[in-house]
Amino acid sequence: MSLSMGQLIIWVVFPYSALMVFLMGLIWKYDRGTEDTKKALHPLCSVAVYSSLIIQSILTASLIVSEGFSWLKWYVSFGLFQPETELLVQASYMLQVQVVISFLILFILPFTRFIVFVRVPKREVQQLFHLLVQQSKRQKADHVKVLVKEVFFHS
């Protein structure tokens, strides 16, 4: 089966280009250090990542329900650097959209502050956990104060 130029760009060039941008973004952030990890290129990149991840989750769940895990064949062939584009050309639109969004996320991710989670996940997850614990303690303390006021002053 012969691919048109558009199909070749979408199913071969774009995924590998997005992967290379992602990997170069990891190297770039690693070389620059952690001082600029709080900055993002633009807040819209964060919105794009959030919305893409939500859409990606929905599509992946529906693909698993409708097609099982047979749709993973293309990802395996892509990882082996022998992408079977015929699988995507003949696949459902849901899988095609899912593949495009997957690589769009990889393409956008280096330009956001979320690349840190990929680069140093342990430290970032620990900081997030500590932040959540502190916030939870504050909320519990506030909740207890409200309960005490209700019980003792409004009875």
Secondary structural class: mainly alpha
Would you count the extended β strands for me?
A: 0
Largest sheet entry:
none
Overall pLDDT level? 77
End-to-end distance: 79 Å
Keywords:
155 residues; mainly alpha
Q: Can you summarize this structure?
A:
By secondary structure, this protein is mostly helical. The protein has helices at 5-32, 43-67, 72-79, 85-89, 93-108, 115-119, 121-153. The radius of gyration is 22 Å and the shape is elongated.
Model description:
By secondary structure, the protein is an all-alpha fold. Helix content is 77%, strand content 0%. The chain is built from seven helices and no strands. The protein is elongated and about 80 Å long. The termini are far apart. The model has no long low-confidence stretch (mean pLDDT 77).
Ordered list of secondary-structure elements with their pairings:
Layout (H helix, E strand, L loop, with lengths): L4 H28 L10 H25 L4 H8 L5 H5 L3 H16 L6 H5 L1 H33 L2
